Amino acid sequence: MVYRYDYDVKNELIDLLETKQDFSGVLEMPYYLEQYHQETSTARQSLQRFLIYKLSYHLDDTDLKQFDCDVCEEMTTSYLKTYHWLDGYRSEQQPSTVVKYEVTNGDITYRGDTMTSAWIPIKNYIQLKMPGQSKIQGNMWELYFLRNMEKIKLSPEAGRFLQLTHSIGNFIPVPRGFNTGRSGEYAKWDSWDLTLEQIFQWYTDNSDMTDICNHGALEHLFTYAKNKESAIQYCEAWLQLFGTWENFVKENYLEAFVDKKGVPKNFFPGHSLENPLPKTLKEYETFFQTVNKCIEQRGKQIANFLMNGENKPETSIGKGASTFSFSDLQNVKDTFLEYVYSFMSISSWKLKLLGFFLFCIIFSPIMVKLEMYPLYQMIIFVAFIIFLAFLIIYFSLGAMYKCPTCKKRFALKRIGKELVSSERISILQEVKTRNRNGNVVGTQEQYIPGTRRTYEIHYVCKNCGEDCYRQYEKETPNV
Questions:
Q1: What is each CA distance from 390 to 354, 395, 396, 438, in whole angstroms?
Q2: What are phi and psi of 240, to 5 degrees?
Q3: pTM tops 0.85, yes or no
Q4: The domain containing residue 388 runs over which residues?
Q5: CA 425 vs CA 163, 326, 429, 450: distances in Å
Q6: Total domain count, the chain
Q7: What percent of the chain is helix, strand and coil (3-state, nearest 5)?
Q8: Cα–Cα distance for residue pair 129/376, rounded to 1 Å
Q9: Three-state SS across 111-149?
Q10: Is residue 207 domain-resident?
């Protein structure tokens, strides 16, 4: 198992599928796997991987059919290494299966759970973008999306959520009856902020652990549980292990999911058990951004702990997520280049006019020194030039961040970027010619292998909430 915060455990299933090559039950699976490997969009590839994972439930092979990311052998083993409150427990196969595992200690059992499930929000999100398909039933949604992949357009944050949903930062061991009990009707409550809200309320209602008498929060959480009474009983025994809300958060690496006051964060404004799912694309983008940030921070904290072999979890909020790496520096560089490429897309006459004004500003001191103009005239001239340059820059940048829907300038907020396509090209470059001593004796132009990458930047309007997508190309030599 790869202990990386953004490693998608569904890759284990993809490897297993390609090793076994047994696709009986879903005869189209080889085509979907080939489509998955050929996909150039990161977001769509994450969706394809997720749909293949969902569709594998209908395969005939038992190992493939029963593969479940949060209770696979490798993840269950990692729970024992990660959570100190599981000291003394051991990993065992679940009854009637050879690929699902649990941790046990006598009569006490815990199983891995996906904290925030992706299927319901992603399905509803795509439906908002592709209206008119509400009559599709059962696993036909998975097949419909796979068969119409070219029509689906996911935002980078939505694609990122599909990758992170089965990563180490979105898994947690929980007691019996917790997983299915708290997910609610049609799994609409299967979102970790909603669960944390009720757990926080339970600790608030039962601050004196010697007398547990207020079950209201858990009764609300387990409204749709089949065995409600036992689910509450097992959950309360689990929560009592930690004594306080603060210790529950610390021991389960949940600092990223609470604010500075220690209160659970909402994944979007107004999120509650009564309002369990986003209703607009704007709310969905907020949901994806917030949950992605929480999962990433928690995943980094857990991954750092596992890789460094520490004896206790980090105690400072978000400490594990604040580590700076060279990849972060590369992201800063890429972001800067995006703005440069975007700025160069401004019409040529604006660039020429801006260049003229900059020329005047640079050479105006020389003109003053040569006393070509009286001093007061020069001051007015320079001020006028600076003002015009400001207007050019202001309106040019304003046009770059102008919402195409509401037409408001400086309204677009950058959400993310994804690679749309990549193609091999030849790039004309000037190559230096050297003699035997290594000295440059001349230059010549020649074509060398290169790559043209097309990137798509996703923006959201801060004024009207509409999505906006722009593309730019970057050519780099392969040397």
A1: 9, 8, 10, 48
A2: -65, -20
A3: no
A4: 331-400
A5: 31, 28, 13, 5
A6: 3
A7: 50, 15, 35
A8: 61
A9: EEEECCCCHHHHHHHHHHHCCCCCCCCCCHHHHHHHHCH
A10: yes
